[in-house]
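fyi for ur records
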Amino acid sequence: MRAANMDRRIQLQRRSLAQNSFGEQIETFTTYATVWAEKLDARGREFFAAQQFNGELTTRFRIRWRGDVQMTDQIVYDGLNFNITQIAEIGRKSGHEIFATAAKP
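which gave:
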């Protein structure tokens, strides 16, 4: 992994449950790390659902190895929330390759 290719700042967010004022459980995300990453777009597609066009972007992010990245986390980059679909280890704890998808409005 080359540091020169890691030119994007991403936020890693962890899912948690909180209660609103009515006592209902709501899902929230809290940023636990901001890291440098390499972004590689895998593919994008558009589809028609619920009488509107939607876009989906599948992306790979490469980051330095961290012991705390989980499949239930999400990545925030460029105003989009990416849901993690796969995490692969690069080398021997050299880094992570994270596959994620985001819905584009």
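The mean pLDDT is 85. thats all i got for now
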